[in-house]
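Sorry to interrupt, but I need a hand with the structure work. Could you add the entry underneath, on a fresh line?
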Amino acid sequence: MPKLDHNDTIGLTQNPKPAAGPDATGLQMDGVASMSDVQATMNKLTQQEAVVTAQLDALVVSQNAFKHEISRLDILRANLGSQAVSTRSLSNAMLSQAAGTAKRLSVAVNQLDLEQARVKSTLDVVEQVAELKTCVLGVTGSMGAAQDWEAAATYLYRASQIPSQVLNGPFAEEIVPTAEVPDPPKITLAQAAETLRDFFLREFEEAAKENNGSRVTRFFKLFPLIGKPDVGLDVYGRYVCQGVATRARSNLNAGTGGLQSTEGFFYANALTKLFEHIAQIVEHHGGLVTTHYGQGRMVRILERLQMEADVQGGIIIDTWSDERSLDRKLTDIKSYAFTFLVQSFLPAPAARTGTSRAGSPMRKGASGEPSAQPEETVDTKRVDALLSEMAVMVARWSLYCRFIALKSKVRPRVVAKEAEADLLIEGRGI
């Protein structure tokens, strides 16, 4: 480092210009006043210069390594460009041709699927027409000399499963008719269904008159097969309603010998038997109707049974009212003066002379003694018996309504099986 001469020292001493703050080196120059301070400042500057020089050297070294990495990236970019060119050429040369081939194959496969679907649809139509012809010939043959009514109904049911567009189509009208059955299949099947319906109705009514349960069940099961479920339900409803009416009249006529007067609950028992009979019909026949007619079709039978229950129950109630003289007893109760109760609220007379009141419970004779003829009053025991019988009737009616409401719900039979059994068991006794 060069040394300062005396003039420089004098200049520094005579013209000091302190800075407002630290200089760029971070040193405080305003406190330099002697050669030793200058020497110290120079040493610090020398040290900072060494540090900066070292940092610059390190930066130069790292810059060389960075340039090396940049060179490698340039080489990789050149290689990647060549690979991209190769890939594009491969795609243009091979993959585009493969894509075109795949597209043509896809179109061919779709066309083949369409043709296959058309062939399958044609085969289905041919099979359905063959099935239709079999059903038509089977119906006519079963209704002929064989008279196999179950088979005829089964053929009609199979024919009903064939779509209407096939049944009414020109192909079926051309193929199905034969020399024995020249009419179109639709007309032949409709005529067969009407003929079987009339025959089944006659046989059902004859079986009902003969009280042949097996024949009744046999023909009852055939109505839904020929497409006449409503007819079967109506005729079956009339059949069970006739049975209910016959049983109810029989139970009611059992008391013509005076039994209704001796037995206090005769009419309540008759009403209970009516409800029990209907409940047994619903319970035992419900499965048959559901199996052959479908879920919820028992409601139609229940409506007919309820109408019959209203009629027969009304007959029982009217007979009970007439036999028990219910209207006269109600009139007597309404017109009863309760004279004894009224007399208990009146002050006692001073002397028992004169004529007694006509309504007094202790009517006196001419001698002043109580009269031997008591006042005509309402028999409370008879009224209590009537009320008890009415209570039993209302209880049985309520139980019956709960059972019918439970059975009228469209649901699986297993859901309320236990509840229905409880209702039936509860309605057995009085």
